[in-house]
Amino acid sequence: MDTFYIQTFAALHKLGMFSFSKGFVPWNNDQSGSPLDVLRWQVYAQPHVGFGKLNVPERLAFSTAALTLNEYVDLDPDKTGISLGTVFGSISTDLRYMESVESGFPSPAYFTATLPSSAATEVAIMFKLKGPDRIFVGNETPGLTALENALTLLKLNKASSMLVLLVNGIDRKEKSSPFITLEKGMSTYCYGLLLTKKRSNHGINYRIELSTDDTTLAKNSQQRTEESYFFDLINAMMKKRNIKLTYSIGTLGGSIVLTKER
Fold it and tell me: Which of 4, 55, 65, 96, CA to CA, is 20 to 30 A from 109?
C-alpha cells in the first residue's frame, strides 16, 4: 500500500488565517472577518507588485500557497505540482470581461484571467513550481477531487510533492448574482495542503489515507459541505491530533484518515 504524507498546511477562513508556520492569526478589525481582505504582508514577506491586481481566486490561492510553503525548506520546485479545486472558477472575472465587451471596449486585463487555471498559474509562476498542474471546477467536491488527483500523481511518480488548493471566492458585487447559489456565495475560504510520498526532516509527516466512491456511506451519513471536512482536517493538525473523517457529500461518500507519525 502506498504511503503519502501532509508536510505543511494553511487556510484562509472567516475566523482568520491558519498555518503550520504561524499558527492561528485572527483578522484585523478593519478586515471584517473576510479572507477577501487578506493583505500581502500578512502572508508573504517579499514584495509582490501585482498583488492588488489579482482577481479573487488568484489572490486567495496565492495567499494560501504562500502560507503553506512558508519556511518549508525541503521543497523541490522542479518536481512540485499543483492540484486546484475551485468552486466558482473565474466567474467574477468572466462577468467583468463581458461587461467590458458590452461597453464596446473589451478589456485585455480581464480576458487574461477568464480561465480557472489563472489561479494555479499565478502560484506556479511566483513559487517556480514546474510539476504537473490540474484544475477541477464546480460540482460539490472540487477539493476532494483535487486531493485524490494529487495522490494519484504522487503514486505515479509524476511529482515528488503536490500542492493541493481548494478555493471558494467571488467579488462582493457578485453576492446577488443569479449565477451564484446563495449558500456557496456567502462563504469565502481557501485551504492548502502540501503532500509528499516520502517523509521529510522539516515537515509534520501526517500520514493521509483517502477512500472515495462509497455510495452506501453517502446514502446513510449526514450530509455536510466539503469545506467543513477540510476545516476539520486543518483543525486536527493545528491541535496535533489524529483524525478519521467519514464524509458524505451529495452522492459521494468515503473517508479520510490522518495519522501523525512519531
Answer: 65
